[in-house]
Design goal:
Layout: H1 2-15, H2 18-29, E1 33-36, H3 42-47, E2 56-64, H4 93-104, E3 109-118, E4 122-130, H5 135-139, H6 141-147
Antiparallel strand pairs: 1-2, 2-4, 3-4
């Protein structure tokens, strides 16, 4: 089943299908960090550790594309090299998405994130998060290992 879900997403990207473009328009108008009920790409989420049980949270994060912007100096002498353009970030967009999700939901732990879609201005990622204090998560041996706790 997951093979067919992955194939469907791959074909949608290649053909730029209307349903995917419509979703992107909704995502663009929506908020930057948005909690979703279930993953958009179930195959990818399951591969990265998602389970359909209580305690798991999926968050869609919008990250702007392009280089970093730095304010132009307004006072004092003008340097020959202002250092305003060609500034690069030291972390990639996926890590930025994980950081923003971690900051928004401090009580949850980030397991992983995966790429969803991009247009000319934004990239979207879905971040898989888990509540380490939820009873069903505490009882699950596999998730304890992922979270870095010893399994009893």
């Amino acid at each position: 089943m997951y093979k067919y879900i992955a194939k469907n997403w791959r074909e949608a990207w290649e053909k730029k299908e209307k349903w995917l473009l419509d979703r992107a328009i909704d995502w663009r108008r929506g908020s930057t960090i948005f909690r979703v009920e279930r993953p958009s790409r179930l195959d990818k989420a399951r591969r990265l550790g998602y389970k359909a049980k209580q305690g798991f949270v999926i968050v869609r994060v919008k990250v702007s594309k392009g280089g970093m912007r730095k304010k132009r100096p307004r006072s004092g002498r003008r340097q020959k090299h202002l250092g305003v353009v060609k500034i690069k970030a030291h972390i990639n967009a996926k890590e930025v998405a994980c950081k923003r999700a971690r900051k928004k939901y401090p009580n949850l732990k980030v397991i992983n994130a995966y790429y969803l879609y991009e247009d000319g201005r934004y990239k979207w990622y879905e971040v898989i998060m888990v509540d380490p204090n939820h009873p069903s998560i505490k009882a699950d041996r596999d998730i304890k290992i992922v979270l870095g706790r010893e399994a009893k």
